[in-house]
Structures
1.
Amino acid sequence: MSSNRVRSRKGFLLLSLLAVVMTVMVGGWLWHNLQGHSMQLIRGQIEEWRPIFIGIRWALITILSIGWSPLCCWLADKGYLTTKNTTQLQNGRWRVIGWLLVMELIVGQNLIARLLSRVGASTG
């Protein structure tokens, strides 16, 4: 196995481990709060933090769209990506950003439910 492939697997494993650790931390925090507080209180706290979470998601999408090319170049310079892989990533940049925006609008902003409620209110 080439050293580039080994390095990319290590990076993937580290990112996966980070995602698992963060998921466990958030789940533990929610579990702890659920044990000591009522569901209504937790729902209220989540609603208070909602604008901050929205801002963080939009900031991450923006940072990703701006930093995509430098990140690809840096990974190629370090030997993690081949020239072909770098070109493929560069070409897929806006597709990934577009899908992130669509998911944010549909899931994060609940766009479909809002549209359906407005259509139902205007016809009813």
Note: The first helix runs from residue 3 to 36.
2.
Amino acid sequence: MYKRVKTDKECRLENNETFTPVATLEDESGGKCQISIDDHCYVLRLRQDGGKYRTTPFIFREAFLVLATLDAPK
């Protein structure tokens, strides 16, 4: 189960671009999910093997609950 942890300062996508998360979730087996803002929309990104992130189309329950606590993107 993912739980919200201290937000990471910067992360890297698979194409080596960086992004700044607004919230970070981590599970008991070391999986990480970053929530960031892109084009005024929240985006969920999951850490892949190698430590880089890939955007996911899935909104799982724990991420939904964190999203509900965030202010609307500007």
Note: DSSP finds one helix and seven strands in the chain.
